[in-house]
């Protein structure tokens, strides 16, 4: 019965996990007295272990002896004293699969793939030039008001040196699809904790000045959004932060808005995927005939191919796609298809995209109200490339520098505008020309939610 339900779900609509579900801002769990009995904890463990055993896309479980994992972790789950302890054990077991999509969420996490939520302090940190550096500060947040800015480094969190903090988080996360995915999952958890609690953080600016602040973890709802504007040299720009049915109409408006531009930049640097049907819908604007986007394959070998469709609105001008290590799942399907068909030039701020591309057709509700996502299909591109574990390598790499972040400069966008502008002016021969267009410095704020660009949000 479970298998029939799984196949029906696959036929209905194969979903790809959102980046927020891949690397969710953890809401934090309380160390409350445990309400499940030892027998209950054993049953919950068995439910998780058996669901993965029966439905995981790889019969060999990525080289892990899955039966041995049951022997190792079941006694630990039974002995857990709190919900946090139990789910820590379950996450460590699941982490052995080395798969960013197969994730478990406790009842306290409140996970909902259709309405992603979490806690945030308004700051995003990534490893830049070997250091934990702030790459984004939410305008209007407490962090912004207290003087935290992109380009600052993190020294301590609640008195713990950042390196030790990351080491603790990596132990809890376990393994992942790639080192890139593991790093993202780790950095996304450095400020994690229960909603409406505080965290003490010590930052240091590029001049060496320390800034100790106390930030509140606030409840947030994450929304996919479409932002569109026109750049110099009559180049269109669209930022798409996720693939979902609710943005399809807005993306169509955006594509109509950029009709008449001479080139287009599609920014997927903060896009972690979403619904594969929407990926196909978005890709359809760039091909005038049905195009193969690859296939999803179950452990039984059944294949479901995905294609673009014919749309009234088409965009035939040169296309550039911006990606980063945070571009995952559906973004990787899109980038790989454009690259293989030579429809777009891929600009990246990392050596590869996430390398996190498996299919998750449903979310299983657990006995205690927790949730479990299981990767039940693998993916291959139209040319047979596997993206999981490798990612998409950009055609042109643009390094992110701390100094640029501090100045608010978006160098990747500047490079894309220069390259696309020269292609518009001189065609493919521009690649061999030793000159650059006069491009204004784009700041990260100039294309933000506060900008004057046309924006469609949900």
Explain what the structure shows.
By secondary structure, the chain is of the alpha+beta class. The protein folds into three domains: 2-109, Transcription Regulator spoIIAA, CATH 3.30.750.44; 118-221, Pdz3 Domain (Roll); 225-360 and 376-447, 2-enoyl-CoA Hydratase, Chain A, domain 1 (Alpha-Beta Complex). It is built from 13 helices and 21 strands. Helix 3 (38-55) packs antiparallel against helix 4 (66-78) and helix 7 (162-173) crosses helix 8 (179-187). It is globular, with a radius of gyration of 22 Å.
Short characterization:
The longest helix has 18 residues, at 38-55. The strands form six sheets. Strands 20-16-15-12-11-10-21 form a seven-stranded mixed sheet, sandwiched between helices. A four-stranded antiparallel sheet has the order 6-5-7-8. The protein has 458 residues and is an alpha+beta fold.
């Amino acid at each position: 019965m479970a298998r029939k339900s799984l196949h029906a779900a696959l036929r209905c609509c194969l979903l790809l996990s959102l980046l927020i579900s891949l690397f969710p801002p953890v809401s934090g769990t309380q160390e409350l007295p445990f309400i499940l009995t030892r027998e209950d904890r054993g049953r919950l463990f068995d439910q998780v272990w058996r669901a993965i055993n029966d439905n995981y896309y790889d019969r060999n479980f990525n080289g892990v002896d899955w039966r041995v994992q049951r022997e190792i972790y079941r006694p630990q789950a039974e002995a857990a004293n709190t919900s946090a302890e139990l789910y820590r054990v379950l996450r460590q077991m699941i982490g052995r699969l080395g798969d960013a999509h197969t994730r478990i969420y406790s009842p306290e996490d409140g996970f909902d793939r259709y309405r992603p939520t979490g806690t945030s302090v308004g700051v995003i940190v990534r490893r830049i030039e070997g250091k934990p550096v702030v790459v984004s500060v939410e305008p209007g947040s407490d962090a912004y008001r207290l003087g935290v800015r992109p380009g600052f480094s993190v020294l301590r969190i609640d008195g713990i040196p950042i390196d030790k903090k990351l080491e603790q988080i990596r132990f809890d996360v376990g393994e992942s699809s790639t080192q890139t995915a593991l790093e993202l999952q780790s950095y996304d958890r450095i400020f994690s904790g229960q909603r409406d609690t505080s965290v003490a953080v010590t930052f240091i600016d590029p001049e060496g000045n320390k800034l100790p602040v106390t930030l509140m973890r606030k409840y947030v709802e994450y929304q996919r959004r479409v932002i569109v504007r026109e750049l110099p040299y009559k180049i269109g720009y669209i930022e798409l932060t996720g693939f979902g049915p609710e943005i399809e109409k807005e993306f169509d408006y955006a594509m109509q808005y950029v009709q008449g531009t001479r080139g287009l930049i599609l920014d997927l640097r903060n896009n972690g995927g979403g619904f594969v049907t929407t990926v196909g819908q978005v890709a359809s604007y760039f091909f005038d005939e049905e195009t193969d986007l690859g296939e999803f394959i179950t452990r039984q070998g059944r294949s479901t191919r995905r294609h673009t469709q014919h749309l009234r609105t088409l965009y035939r001008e040169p296309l550039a796609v911006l990606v980063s290590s945070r571009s995952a799942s559906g973004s990787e399907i899109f980038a790989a298809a454009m690259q293989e068909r030579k429809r777009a030039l891929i600009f990246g701020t990392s050596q590869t995209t996430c390398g996190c591309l498996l299919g998750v057709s449903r979310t299983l509700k657990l006995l205690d109200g927790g949730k479990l996502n299981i990767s039940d299909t693998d993916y291959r591109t139209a040319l047979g490339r596997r993206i999981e574990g490798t990612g998409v390598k950009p055609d042109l790499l643009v390094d992110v520098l701390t100094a640029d972040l501090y100045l608010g400069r978006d160098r990747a966008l500047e490079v894309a505008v220069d390259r696309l502008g020269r292609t518009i002016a001189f065609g493919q021969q521009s690649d061999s020309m030793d000159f650059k267009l006069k491009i204004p410095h784009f700041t990260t704020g100039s294309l933000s939610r506060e900008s004057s660009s046309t924006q469609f949000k949900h």
